[in-house]
Amino acid sequence: MQGDFHYYATYCAAVLAGYGHRSSVDICHAAQLVDHCSRIWLKKAGGPSQAATTQLQSELLQARTDPIGLCDITRIWSAFHFLPKDLYADIEKGSKNYKDKFRLICGPNGNLLVDTVKLAKDKGTPAIGIAMHVLADTWAHTYFAGTPSLVINNTNWYFYELLPGEAGEPERRQIRFSHNPSASEDVDKPVYVGSVYQSDENSIMNLGHGRAGHLPDYSYIRYVYLPAWGGYREIIKDNPNDYECAFAQMVYAMSCLRGEGDDFKKETYATKIVEPHLDRIRSIITKRQVDASEDWKAFGESLSGERIPDFDKDEHIAEYVGSTNKSATYLGQFFEAALAQKKMIANRIMESGSRLAGWL
């Protein structure tokens, strides 16, 4: 997902979950900061390098892909962007290495999601924001894994958008990918930007949904493709439905974190709270645009009656750098929550018998 959902939609979900304007801003700021908290930015902010929640393209291009380097990459991307759904998934064929990678495939409503939400309990708004980023991405990044892997993450030319057709049958329109990172995307042709094919199993180009470009990050699109891990059998991805579920689950999760009702449970959604706003939410999600920020922002401001400030990743640096009690600052809480999330997921992966993330 992108800033439109991680920032503005998360703000909307926080308000509906009962948080006030200021707390909702703090939550969505942390949710979006997950996509900016690289080691380069941490050096600027004065934070611990191990608290990195993402890697910039320039960092990835220089990243080591030996076992140590791959563990570092996997710890970041599996913990924050591609949360594994089932580390003990039953798969009969393949080597142990293949099975370990297969079990890192992201998906919603896994046991690690429950652990992630519970970990944020009573840890402050930055921890809640991190958990909401992870939760939302389990829906958007379904079927991809947060480790470089050709045999898991590769796709081929067989990629079609599903459009409404006659007699209820969807019409298929082939999607074409450009490999020029500076090229503009055209949702009407349609042409999208994806990573170039690399035959090296551990190439950075094969990390996450890079081969599919930003399609998983766009709420309006339904598509069918052939994932490498699926034996190149068709998989349908219905983003409008998934993004709607993600939003309703965020509202439910944040209600739980506020102390409303029982502890967070899988496959539970704040349907009654969201229902009065469903038409507007669906109109935003299904609108053909690569950035829905303005629409989510307008919805959020209509909910709270307050102005949502633009996201500024550097907003809290001065407070953090100037404080003698960094744990009491916003960024201090963000870094501590990020370190806790990364440690938990890396250790869960190791406990499953995999060595792809290493101990933390």
The N- and C-terminal alpha carbons lie at a distance of 27 Å
* Largest pleated sheet: 4 strands, antiparallel
What is the H-and-E element order?
HHHHHHHHHEEEEEEHHHHHH
Per DSSP, the total helix count is 15
Radius of gyration: 20 Å
Number of domains as seen in the coordinates: 2
Question: What percentage of the residues does DSSP assign to strands (E)?
Answer: 5-15%
Global outline: globular
* Strand order in the largest sheet: 2-1-5-6
- Mean pLDDT equals 93
Low-confidence stretches: none
Helix content: 40-55%
Number of strands: 6
Q: Which structural class should the secondary elements be placed in?
A: alpha+beta
Give the gist of this structure.
This protein is α+β, with helices and mostly antiparallel strands. The protein has helices at residues 3-16, 21-33, 39-45, 57-61, 67-80, 96-102, 111-119, 125-140, 150-153, 239-257, 271-274, 278-286, 293-304, 317-322, 330-351; strands at 159-163, 171-174, 176-178, 191-193, 222-225, 235-238. The mean pLDDT is 93.
